[in-house]
Amino acid sequence: MQIYHYPSPAAEKKMKSIIDRTIDFRKADVQTVTQILGEVRKNGDQALVEYCRKFDAPQMTTDALAVTPEEMAAAKQKVDRSFTRALNRAAAQVERFHRQQLPKSWIDTGRPGTLVGQMVHPVDAAGIYVPGAKGGTTPLVSSVLMGAIPAKIAGVSNIVMVTPPTADGTVAPHLLVAASKAGVDAVYKVGSAWAIAALAYGTQTIPQVNVIVGPGNIFVTLAKKMVAGTVGIDMIAGPSEILVIADNTADPDFTAADLLSQAEHDPLASAVLVTDSPQLAEAVAEAVKTQLAALSRADIASQSWRDFGAIMVVDDLDAAISLANQIAPEHLELQVADPMDLAPRLHNAGAIFLGHYTPEPVGDYVAGPNHVLPTAGTARFSSALSVDNFMKKTSLIQYSPAAFKKEARDIICLANVEGLGAHANAIQVRLDKTASTQKG
Question: Of 135, 148, 367, 387, which shows the fewest CB atoms inside 10 Å?
Answer without folding.
Answer: 135
